[in-house]
Amino acid sequence: MAAFGVIGIGSIAQRHIANLRQLHPDDKVYVVSASGNNANRPSDADAVITIQELISIQPKYVIIASPAPLHVNTAIRLLSAGIPVLIEKPVSD
Known about the structure:
Layout: E1 3-7, H1 11-23, E2 28-32, E3 47-48, H2 51-57, E4 62-64, H3 71-80, E5 85-87
Parallel strand pairs: 1-2, 1-4, 2-3, 4-5
């Protein structure tokens, strides 16, 4: 079973979560809240976890859909761990 990740829980992130669920119905979709609010799990996500937990899972790829000022630092952490990323525009503020 593969795993995928989405950074963010806003409306764009929720669209990505739903798309991942549709593309990969039997796989895990994990979410990392950019604000640290892990209490609000989007309905299509399997769990809301920390970025460190996500890195330890080694997902196939992660979609970064958090606020733009957080994109670069998040991408660096994931890419440094060998995890491919798709960054929602803009890349940075």
